C-alpha cells in the first residue's frame, strides 16, 4: 500500500456501519461501559469535526469529536480513535488526531480532551490534566486524562464535571 492511496474525509452518515465495525474490532464489547462512552451517550458527536480514513474506498479508520463542557471550558472529547488492524502502525491514527485537533481549533474549541495513553498522545500535543481535576460519569484513571489546551488558562479552568454540551 502506498501513502497516496489514503484519503481523509469528514465523517457522514454513510460511514456509520464501517465505524461501528472498526470500533468493535478495536475495543470489543466492553467499549460501551467506559466513562468516555457514557459522555458520548449524552448527545451526538460533531460530524463536522469527526473524520475517517479510506483506502481505495474502504473506511479503515475513524476519529470522533463530541462537544463537552469540562469544568467551565467548552471543548471537545476526542474518541474513539480506531484503525483497522491491517492498517496499524502507518501513522493513520496520528494524522486523524492532527486533523481533528486542527478542525476543533478552527471552530473555536478551547480544549481537546481524551482518556488515553500519554506516551502515544504526548507527542501529538496532549498534556496531562491535573490529577482528579475532572469528574467523569464513571470510573476513569486520572493519569490518562489528557488535553490539548487551545484557549486561555485551560488547565486552571479544567475543574469539575465533564459532560456533553449542545
What does this protein look like?
This protein is α+β, with helices and mostly antiparallel strands and 166 residues long. The mean pLDDT is 94.
Task: List key phrases describing it.
5 helices; 166 residues; alpha+beta
Task: Give the assembly state of these chains.
Answer: single chain
Structural class: alpha+beta
Helix content: 10-25%
Strand content range? 25-35%
Query: What low-confidence regions span 5 or more consecutive residues with pLDDT below 50?
Result: none
Q: Biggest sheet, open or closed, and with what strands and sense?
A: 9 strands, mixed
Instruction: Say how many strands there are.
Output: 9
Radius of gyration: 15 Å
Give the integer mean of the pLDDT values: 94
* Global shape: globular
* Helix-strand sequence: EHHEEEHEHEEEHE
Topology diagram in text:
Blueprint: E1 6-10, H1 16-27, H2 35-40, E2 51-55, E3 58-70, E4 73-83, H3 92-106, E5 111-115, H4 118-121, E6 127-128, E7 134-135, E8 145-149, H5 154-157, E9 160-164
Parallel strand pairs: 4-5, 7-9
Antiparallel strand pairs: 1-2, 2-3, 3-4, 3-9, 5-8, 6-8
Quick take:
This protein has 166 residues and is α+β, with helices and mostly antiparallel strands.
